[in-house]
Give the backbone structure.
Amino acid sequence: MNLPSSTSVTSASDSDTSPENSPDTCEGCGSRDSWVTHSARFRCIIRFYCTHCLLRKHPTSFCPSCLAFYDSSPPHHSHRVSCSDCGSYTHIHCAGDDANSTPYRCPPCRNPDSFSFFRPIIDATAASINPSRERSYARPRSLPLP
């Protein structure tokens, strides 16, 4: 597993300011919402992904229902169910009654249009993707002192 660190990464290609290798743009979806961009090494190249795209590229590293990260290895097969579409491992207790369905599909695969792993609120053109969601992430305004 090659998940990114939370520290900034420098590389020989830092002088490349093309959109394909910019820390401000997700290479998966094109989002320019840089506060959720993570660096990850893929085939010896530093790439930048938003949280949503990074998690989608590592489906066996966490439970897609509760988002618990599997530090060293996923839960024992008797305590998990595997998604037939993406291969992610969901805790049996998180899957609930759906764990017995064959084939099992995790929440992101079962309903991809309404499920998001922290999808960005700004697209590649800097336009708002979802205004109601943008309001929920807005910084609170300072209240005047009495």
Q: What stands out?
A: The two ends are 53 Å apart (CA to CA). Confidence is low (pLDDT under 50) at residues 5-17, 132-143. The first strand starts at residue 37 and ends at 42.
